Amino acid sequence: MFDHEHIASINPLATREEQLADIRQIYPPEREALGVVAIGIELVGPPLPNPLADLLSQGRPA
């Protein structure tokens, strides 16, 4: 994944080496060997109304 993405788009506060070290703590070599699935998400329209979020942003209990 790091070979195909700009490193700052993954974590702009860490170097490539720091990010690899962090990921390798989570995913040991046998899991890393399985590969990566990356999903791109794109907003295609305006967000739908969310009444619960509106209540919470106004400080009201849900």
Summarize the structure.
This protein has helices spanning 7-10, 16-26, 29-32, 51-57.
Number of distinct beta strands? 0
Q: How is the main sheet built? A: none
Q: Helical percent range?
A: 40-55%
- Judged by helices, strands and strand pairing, the structural class is mainly alpha
> Which descriptor suits the 3D outline?
elongated
- Share in β-strands: under 5%
Write the layout of secondary structure elements.
Elements: H1 7-10, H2 16-26, H3 29-32, H4 51-57
Can you describe what's shown?
- It is built from four helices and no strands.
- By secondary structure, it is an all-alpha fold.
- The relative contact order is 0.10.
- It is elongated.
Task: List descriptors.
single chain; 62 residues; mainly alpha; 42% helix; 0% strand
